[in-house]
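To the wet lab folks,

You asked to see what we're planning to order before we commit. Fair enough. Below is the target structure as C-alpha cells, and below that is the sequence we designed to fit it. If anything looks off to you, flag it before the synthesis order goes out.
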C-alpha cells in the first residue's frame, strides 16, 4: 500500500472543461484556490494497493532432449547474469509469459483487481526513488531507461544513523524503513493496512511473500519435524528434572505442531517480510513519524528501526525484488494470519475528482473530548479528503447500480445538511448544467440579496457577487390552484415514463 498523490492541479483542469461559458472566471478562481489551500497543508493523497505476482513460464517437456534443452537455457541465463549481461530483446522475453499473465488477469478480475497500464508501472518504479519530493505524475511516468530511472543517489547520512537520504534532480528527501519484528501468536485483528491508512502523514506498508516448498528435499516439512523432536526432547528433560517448562517453550511447541499439521495436510504456509516506510523533507519529520508508528503499535506488534539494515531493506522492498534467501526480519505464518492485515480494504468517501466538500472522520470517539471533540481537531487530524462531482454521478460510474444523479443527504438535526446542499448547489452553478434549488423558507434568496448589497463583499469578492446576480428567482403562490404539482418532476415525463418512475420509487422505498 502506498499514498497515491491526487494530482489536484491536473484533476481540476479536467473539471474545468465542464464549466459553464459564463462561469469560467469564477469556476477557475475557486478551483485554483481549492488546490492552493489543500496543498498548503501538505501532500494530498489517497491509499492505493498494488499486488505484484511473479509469473513464471511453465515448462512442458515431452522427451529427454527437452529436458537437456531446458537445463542448458537455465545454465546459460545464470552465466550471463554472473558476467553482468542482460537480455536484449525484452519484448520477446515478456511475450513468452503472455498466456500465463492473461490467466492471472482473468482470475484477479473477479476480485475487482485490474492490471496496471505501462505508464502507471513506470511511475510506480520511479516513485520509489523520489519519495517525499514534489513532482508531477505526468512528468515522471515516462522513465523507461532503467539507469535513468534509478539515477537517484541513495546514501546513509553519517550524522543521522537509521535513515536514508535520497538525492535527485527534484530535490532531497529522507526516509526510514521500519521492519516488523515480533508478532503475537494469534494475529487476529492485526489490521495493519487499515492502521497505515489512518496515519495523519503519508506512509507505505510493503510486504514480500513467498510460498516455500512444503514437502520433499528442501521442504519445510523436514525442518518442522526436526524442531518438533527438539522441543519434545527439551520438554521431556525438564519434566524428568522436576522442572516446569516455560510458557515460551509450550507456546512455540504448540505453534510448531500446528504448522506441522498444516504441512502434512498440504495447506500452504508463507514466508514474508513487511516494512512501514515513512519519509519527509527533514530528518526531524521522519524521526517523529517513525516514533508515531512504533509507539501506536507497540501494544499489538513490535516495529523496529533497523538502523544497520536500512540500505538492504530499501533494495529488498523494491518492486519485483524476490524475497530470496532473506534471513533477517523474515516470518513464517499461515495464510490466514496475513489475511488479518486487511490488504486492499479501504473506507473512503467521494470520488477521484470533483469539488472539495470536506474530510472523512478518522478519530471517531478517539478525539481529545470524545463525541464533543472540536470540529477543527477532527478536520486537521484527517488526511482523507472528500471530493464530489454531481455531473459525474449521471455518467455511469463503474460498479454503480444506478445512473440517475440522485443524492440523499441524511444526518442529525443541526449537523450541516442544509449547508452541504447549498454548497453543492453553488458548485453545480459553476458547471454547464441547469440547477434548480427548491427553498420553501425563501432563506437563500434573502441571504444572497443581502450579500449582493453588502459593500464589503462587493469589494473583496466581486466574482462571487457577480455570479449571484445571474441567478433567477421564482416565487410560487401556494394558494393558487394553478401551482399545484408544478414542482413534481413526474408531470414533465410522458405517461409511460411517469408510471415507471412512480413504480420504481415505491420499489426503492419498500423493496
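Sequence we intend to order:
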Amino acid at each position: 500500500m502506498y499514498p497515491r498523490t491526487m494530482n489536484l492541479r491536473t484533476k481540476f483542469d479536467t473539471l474545468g472543461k465542464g464549466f459553464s461559458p459564463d462561469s469560467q472566471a469564477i469556476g477557475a478562481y475557486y478551483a485554483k484556490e481549492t488546490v492552493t489551500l489543500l496543498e498548503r497543508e501538505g501532500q494530498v493523497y489517497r491509499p492505493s494497493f498494488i499486488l505484484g505476482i511473479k509469473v513464471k513460464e511453465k515448462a512442458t517437456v515431452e522427451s529427454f532432449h527437452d529436458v537437456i534443452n531446458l537445463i542448458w537455457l537455465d545454465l546459460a541465463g545464470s552465466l550471463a547474469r554472473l558476467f553482468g549481461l542482460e537480455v536484449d530483446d525484452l519484448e520477446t522475453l515478456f511475450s513468452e509469459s503472455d498466456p500465463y499473465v492473461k490467466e492471472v488477469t482473468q482470475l484477479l478480475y473477479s476480485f475487482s483487481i485490474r492490471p496496471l497500464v505501462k505508464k502507471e508501472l513506470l511511475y510506480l518504479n520511479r516513485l520509489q526513488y523520489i519519495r517525499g519530493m514534489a513532482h508531477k505524475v505526468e512528468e515522471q511516468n515516462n522513465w523507461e531507461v532503467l539507469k535513468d530511472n534509478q539515477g537517484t543517489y541513495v546514501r546513509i547520512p553519517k550524522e543521522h544513523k537509521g535513515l536514508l537520504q535520497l538525492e535527485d534532480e527534484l530535490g532531497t528527501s529522507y526516509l526510514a524503513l521500519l521492519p516488523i519484528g515480533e508478532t503475537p501468536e494469534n494475529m487476529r485483528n492485526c489490521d495493519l493496512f487499515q492502521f497505515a491508512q489512518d496515519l495523519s502523514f503519508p506512509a507505505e506498508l510493503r510486504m514480500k511473500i513467498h510460498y516455500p516448498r512444503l514437502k520433499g528435499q528442501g521442504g519445510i516439512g523436514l525442518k518442522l519435524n526436526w524442531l518438533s523432536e527438539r522441543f519434545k526432547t527439551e520438554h521431556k528433560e525438564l519434566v524428568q528434572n522436576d522442572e516446569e517448562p516455560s510458557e515460551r517453550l509450550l507456546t512455540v511447541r504448540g505453534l510448531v505442531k500446528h504448522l506441522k499439521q498444516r504441512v502434512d495436510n498440504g495447506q500452504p504456509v508463507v514466508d514474508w517480510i513487511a516494512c512501514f516506510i515513512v519519509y519527509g523533507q527533514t530528518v526531524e519529520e521522519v524521526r517523529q513519524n517513525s516514533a508515531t508508528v512504533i509507539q501506536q503499535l507497540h501494544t499489538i506488534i513490535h516495529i523496529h528501526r533497523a538502523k544497520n539494515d536500512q540500505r538492504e531493506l530499501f533494495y529488498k522492498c523494491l518492486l519485483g525484488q524476490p524475497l530470496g534467501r532473506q534471513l533477517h526480519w523474515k516470518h513464517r505464518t499461515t495464510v490466514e494470519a496475513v489475511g488479518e492485515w486487511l490488504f486492499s480494504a479501504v473506507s473512503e468517501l467521494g470520488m477521484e475528482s470533483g469539488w472539495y466538500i470536506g474530510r472523512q472522520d478518522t478519530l471517531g470517539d478517539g478525539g481529545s473530548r470524545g463525541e464533543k471533540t472540536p470540529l477543527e481537531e477532527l478536520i486537521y487530524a484527517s488526511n482523507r479528503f472528500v471530493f464530489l462531482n454531481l455531473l459525474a454521478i449521471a455518467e455511469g460510474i463503474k460498479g454503480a447500480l444506478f445512473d440517475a444523479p440522485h443524492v440523499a443527504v441524511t444526518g442529525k438535526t443541526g449537523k450541516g445538511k442544509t449547508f452541504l446542499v447549498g454548497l453543492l448547489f453553488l458548485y453545480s452553478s459553476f458547471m454547464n448544467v441547469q440547477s434548480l434549488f427548491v427553498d420553501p423558507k425563501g432563506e437563500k434568496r434573502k441571504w444572497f440579496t443581502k450579500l449582493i448589497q453588502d459593500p464589503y463583499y462587493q469589494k473583496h469578492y466581486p466574482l462571487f457577487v457577480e455570479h449571484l446576480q445571474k441567478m433567477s428567482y421564482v416565487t410560487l403562490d401556494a394558494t393558487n390552484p394553478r401551482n399545484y404539482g408544478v414542482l413534481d418532476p413526474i408531470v414533465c415525463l410522458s405517461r409511460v415514463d411517469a408510471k415507471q418512475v412512480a413504480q420504481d420509487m415505491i420499489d426503492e422505498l419498500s423493496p
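Structural context that might help your review: The chain has three domains: 49-55+97-211+268-339, 220-264, 355-509. The mean pLDDT is 84.

Thanks,
Computational group
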